[in-house]
Amino acid sequence: MKKTIATSVLVLSLAACGTAQKEEKATKGLVIPDAVSASFKQHYPNAEDVEWEMEDNNYEAEFEANETETSVVMDANGGILETESEIEVTMLPKAAQDYMTTNYKGQKVTEAAKIVLADGTVQYEAEVKRKDVLFDANGVFIEEETEE
User: Model pTM?
Assistant: First the structure.
């Protein structure tokens, strides 16, 4: 019995070390504050393939959750500023789809996302030829941003 418990503890310890190494590797040397890490783990316990980077003075995690590419931007205290989840292009509001068809003739929307800001405001993003085209919740055009 003692041998089984000792083996279980060893296996769990090795698994924890493997997870820590995977997370450290994903951060590319970026030190994530404890508050950010704890908040992220609380909100996204099923996150996989997490990669961290800095966005302005905030922390952005890109990851997979429930087979959906997702990103979250957090402040240094772990507060969520924005979440962005990949969606099917057909899930863009009709007005946004119409705008893209009219203003980007012959260009294919390669990715689409639903963005939720800290205050609950919903926006949509359509990506076409290194440009992100943003829309409000009703599909009304907001702006176009060129990707760097």
Answer: 0.78
Please work out, in degrees rounded to the nearest 5, the angle formed at the alpha carbon of residue 34 by the alpha carbons of 64 and 75: 70
CA distance 36 to 77: 6
Task: Judge whether residue 11 has pLDDT over 50.
Answer: no
For the chain, the domains span 1-82, 88-148
The sheet carrying 111-117 orders its strands as 48-55, 58-65, 68-74, 80-87, 111-117, 122-128, 131-136, 141-146
pLDDT in tens, 12-62: 343 444 443 334 334 667 899 999 999 999 999 999 999 999 999 999 999
Q: Where are the beta strands (DSSP E) in the chain?
A: 48-55, 58-65, 68-74, 80-87, 111-117, 122-128, 131-136, 141-146
Do 76 and 30 contact (CB within 8 A), yes or no? no
User: Considering only the top CATH level, what class is 1-82?
Assistant: alpha beta
- Selected from 2.170.190.11, 3.40.1420.30, 3.40.50.720, 3.30.300.20, the CATH number assigned to the domain covering 88-148 reads 3.40.1420.30
